């Protein structure tokens, strides 16, 4: 009956079947700290009573900032440097996850994470590029309703949610000023320029060890890129 605040995605990507089975056997509730999955948890039904369910849910909409190269051409992306890849427009993150965000592999790994956490098929998770990183994710229902969780891009919010759940506690985060934001934008991801997203989705659909292989290959590729051994589009 413990509460597990999950702050990494690799444990689910590599061995989601083992972790989720152990949680079910122990009666544990897994509270994701990833801002997107925390948002989904909040928007799913019964999140206040225990592990969220899927009653009436038709689709999960997982948002992505698009990374620093969202508007770059394919040719420009080919010449991207580690410093450019690590310059995320909205979040302050480590070098490895910053590169994953730039390639959209981070979002692909988060798709796999969502499938395990919420027991949905890859086809039920849609990636939506949202450059402002204000809408952290959404859940679409069969009646046409879409519930979204909004907030400033500050990790203190999902951490506070996990610590306080099922109550709410003060996270020390500035209130969201919607009028000042004025506009929010959404677009489809370009899997031609960012093929890592497609690779992760295919790994999720394949199942078995494909997801672990995808994650391991990405770890090696990112390490080589940061060391100057390969180019960004290698």
TrEMBL record:
It comes from the Bacteria. One of its GO terms (biological process) is isopentenyl diphosphate biosynthetic process, methylerythritol 4-phosphate pathway involved in terpenoid biosynthetic process. InterPro entries: DXP_reductoisomerase (IPR003821), DXP_reductoisomerase_C (IPR013644), DXPR_C (IPR026877), DXPR_C_sf (IPR036169). Keywords: Isomerase, Metal-binding, Oxidoreductase. Its cofactor is Mg(2+); Mn(2+). This is 1-deoxy-D-xylulose-5-phosphate reductoisomerase. Its EC number is 1.1.1.267. Belongs to the DXR family. GO terms for molecular function: 1-deoxy-D-xylulose-5-phosphate reductoisomerase activity; isomerase activity; manganese ion binding; NADPH binding. Residues 150-233 form the DXP reductoisomerase C-terminal domain. It comes from Haliea salexigens. SUPFAM superfamilies: 1-deoxy-D-xylulose-5-phosphate reductoisomerase, C-terminal domain, Glyceraldehyde-3-phosphate dehydrogenase-like, C-terminal domain. Coiled coil: none annotated. It catalyses: 2-C-methyl-D-erythritol 4-phosphate + NADP(+) = 1-deoxy-D-xylulose 5-phosphate + NADPH + H(+). Pathway: Isoprenoid biosynthesis; isopentenyl diphosphate biosynthesis via DXP pathway; isopentenyl diphosphate from 1-deoxy-D-xylulose 5-phosphate: step 1/6. Residues 30-118 form the 1-deoxy-D-xylulose 5-phosphate reductoisomerase C-terminal domain. It is an enzyme of class 1 (oxidoreductase).
């Amino acid at each position: 009956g413990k509460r597990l605040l999950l702050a990494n995605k690799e444990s689910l990507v590599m061995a989601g079947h083992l972790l989720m089975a152990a949680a079910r056997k122990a009666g544990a509730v897994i509270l994701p700290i990833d801002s997107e999955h925390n948002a989904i948890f909040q928007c799913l039904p019964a999140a206040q009573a225990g592990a969220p369910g899927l009653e009436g849910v038709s689709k999960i909409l997982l948002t992505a900032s698009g990374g620093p190269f969202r508007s770059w051409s394919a040719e420009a992306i080919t010449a991207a440097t580690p410093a450019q890849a690590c310059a995320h427009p909205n979040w302050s993150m480590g070098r490895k996850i910053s590169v994953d965000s730039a390639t959209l592999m981070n979002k692909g790994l988060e798709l796999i994470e969502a499938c395990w956490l919420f027991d949905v098929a890859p086809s039920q998770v849609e990636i939506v590029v949202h450059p402002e990183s204000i809408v952290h994710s959404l859940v679409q229902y069969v009646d046409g309703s879409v519930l979204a969780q909004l907030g400033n891009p500050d990790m203190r919010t999902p951490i506070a949610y996990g610590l306080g759940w099922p109550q709410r506690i003060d996270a020390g985060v500035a209130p969201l000023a919607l009028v000042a934001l004025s506009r929010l934008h959404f677009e489809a991801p370009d899997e031609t320029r960012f093929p890592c997203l497609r690779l992760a989705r295919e790994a999720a659909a394949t199942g078995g060890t494909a997801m672990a292989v995808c994650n391991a290959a990405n770890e090696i590729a990112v390490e080589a890129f940061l060391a100057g051994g390969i180019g960004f589009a290698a």
